[in-house]
Specification:
The protein is mostly helical and 83 residues long. The protein has 5 helices and no strands.
Length: 83
């Protein structure tokens, strides 16, 4: 699958039905994906497999993840960026 096709597929999976999550997830895809290495890209795709309440807990309620800590820190940092 081409990089552009993979990014398009992931963009669709970033749509979670909660605007805050959609913005953070697509924000990472837009800003970090182009420079991300294969392991970071794979972890992002895995993260998108989590249920919405778990993702919301990590990104909006600052719950601590086990295996996704570096990615969650990057996603949380997007909350701090001015719009």
């Amino acid at each position: 699958m081409s990089d552009q096709a993979e990014q398009g597929r992931l963009r669709w999976r970033c749509r979670r039905g909660m605007k805050e999550l959609d913005l953070l997830l697509t924000g990472w895809l837009d800003t970090r994906w182009p420079a991300a290495n294969e392991a970071e890209r794979a972890q992002f795709a895995q993260f998108l497999e989590l249920p919405d309440p778990q993702i919301a807990g990590y990104l909006l309620r600052d719950e601590e993840p086990d295996e996704f800590a570096p990615l969650v820190r990057q996603l949380r940092a997007l909350r701090q960026r001015p719009a």
